[in-house]
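[job 4471] stage=fold_predict status=RUNNING
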Amino acid sequence: MKQLIECVPNYSEGRDKSVIDAIVAAIQTVEGIRVLDVDPGEATNRTVVTFVGEPESVCEAAFRGAAKAKELIDMRQHHGAHPRSGATDVLPLIPVAGITLEECAALARSLAERLWKELGIPCYCYEAAAFKPERKNLAVCREGEYEALPEKMADPARQPDFGGAWDEVAAKAGATNVGARNFLVAVNFNLNTTSTRRAMAVAFDVREKGRKNPSGEGWIPGTLKGTKAIGWYIDEYGIAQVSMNITDIDATPLHVAFEEVSAKAAARGLRVTGAEIVGLVPKRVLLEAGRFYLEKQQRSLGISEAEIVKIAVKSMSLDDLKPFNPKEKVIEYLMADDPHGLAQMTVEAFTRETASESAAPGGGSVSASMGAFAAALATMVANLSSHKRGWDARWKEFSDVAEQGQQLVDELLLLIDEDTAAFNRIMDCFSMPKGTEEEKAARARALEEATLYAAQVPLRTMEASLKALPLALQMAREGNPASASDAGVAALAAVAAVQGARLNVRINAAGLTDKTPARPLLERADAIVAEALALEKQVLDEVNNHIEL
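[job 4471] inference complete, writing structure tokens
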């Protein structure tokens, strides 16, 4: 899985567009970075920029943005309504996919150290990146704001985690607060009331802080950890809402918040009519919600990602107030790779592209597509079986099979494009220079590496396609008898994929100058074919037992 993190730096400039544009431009000089939002505020004199990418790229972009802010913003002249301590005031790293909060904390600390060593910017580390427990709270790090920095930097107990004495750089750039935190989901729950007071009562019921104890001593905590909430009335919609920030989506997933707010609202005679996500969300937030509601319905979870997201949207009525387009709200979809890949083509377009005079896509990509169809058919039988009348008690059994099948479909769809990319990598080697002995040697090494990779990719196709066969066998034996022929076609397609991919393993292995790494590939390929043929026979025997005339 690709690692993705989000960075949401806040810069102490919200009025001078040329400065804001220059900072954003510096961020965008890093390849692979996607700037998702730029939100300047005139009263606060502060701009919030949101960008996403892989960890190394995000850290580099964050560094370049801070360097440009140091160059263009003079904190000695800064005034605004929002608390601040530096030109780059806060610099949080947020895990989105494939990376943990702890890993982001380590990256944040390294980034803070680099800002100090290379730019001379003093840095405090906060939240998950904090070195001191009290500095988990950003307010502690920023206490006294920019104006208190000379005094704080002279006090050993309050000095930055990275930084020295107050100097010209600190006077101009201030101090930056670098941290790591979980993704914050901002969501409003729509109520069938216009009463702000009643909406606030529901907010008090659920938010972690809760409400003041009527006795005047302490607070009565709410039911949802990692949440902050208030009630308000929205003129635009003519309704009251519970407005919530979920600061810990592990402790309180979105669907858990929706269910709890709905329950507390119902206890007060109210109804949640839907929810409104403000800003962006990681994909897993919607996938977790979709799976939760599918399980409640005792329906198979082995459906496409798009269908799972659709279930989440409809179950929480995320489109209650306005259309909800996942492609515009989900970070991973905004960061999606080339939408023009082979796997994104229609069947007709892929077929005609294969038939063209171009050498790619070729047999490797077609083999991967047959493997994907095999896994898809086995998955289809599992899903049909989970819905079969009278088999309701077995829904989980078939759902588990369908989930395995969907994972194989995803893997094989990726291999369609990967196989063509591996072929193109070989072609690129032939355009490398060969004017000198050194260039010839480099060209030969690159060609050998590319050829070995081109043999390894179809072996991955073989491994994935082989895994579809046990699923087809299980469905031929235990699935809906009316779909037995589909299980049989799944087996035939899987074996075709295995044998086709084996030819690609062999032809690329034959092109290697050093045959040593080829031998284990060929041995494994032969073993997979033997295993696949044996499983195919078992599947077809089961299928034929079902459809004897």
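[job 4471] summary: The mean pLDDT is 93.
[job 4471] exit 0
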